[in-house]
Amino acid sequence: MIGEQLISREPVTLSKAKNLLEKRKLDSELSYEQEEALKYAKIFSKVTKKQRDKIMEELNKLGKIRPELAVKIVDILPQDIEILRLLPDKKDELKDEDLEAVLQIIKKYGPKKKES
């Protein structure tokens, strides 16, 4: 880590982390931690780049969702309002209408449920 410094900080989804690590792997060998993070992201990332970008864009359009919360929503993709109510911090002032709008965005752009 000699010579490295933090340039910026922003929350990223598992999907974006996976894409960033895959690109880095093409350029050079990944460290052990990066390899493990890539394995984790491949297993638990639920959306494609296109889906992620559309969901994030729509959540930003709502104007009430902080970037950190949007990342949590994209990573977890809650399917019902009870789970969605658990994600916001106390400082987030989201009403049920806002949460319903988030669920509609997830249903519209998220992965489709598999029929059993």
Task: Describe the protein's architecture and organization.
It contains six helices and no strands. With about 120 residues, the protein is an all-alpha fold. The chain has two domains: about 15-45, no CATH class; about 50-110, Orthogonal Bundle (DNA polymerase, domain 1). Helix 1 (about 15-25) crosses helix 2 and helix 3 (about 50-60) packs across helix 4.
Describe the protein's topology.
Elements: H1 14-27, H2 32-44, H3 49-62, H4 67-76, H5 81-86, H6 96-109
Helix pairs in contact: 1-2, 3-4, 3-6
Kindly report the average pLDDT value.
90
Helix count from the secondary structure assignment: 6
CATH architecture of the largest domain: Orthogonal Bundle
Radius of gyration: 16 Å
How do the SSEs run, as a string of H and E?
Answer: HHHHHH
* Strand coverage percent: under 5%
The CATH class of the largest domain, by name, is: Mainly Alpha
> Mind describing the biggest β-sheet?
none
- Helical residues, percent: 55-70%
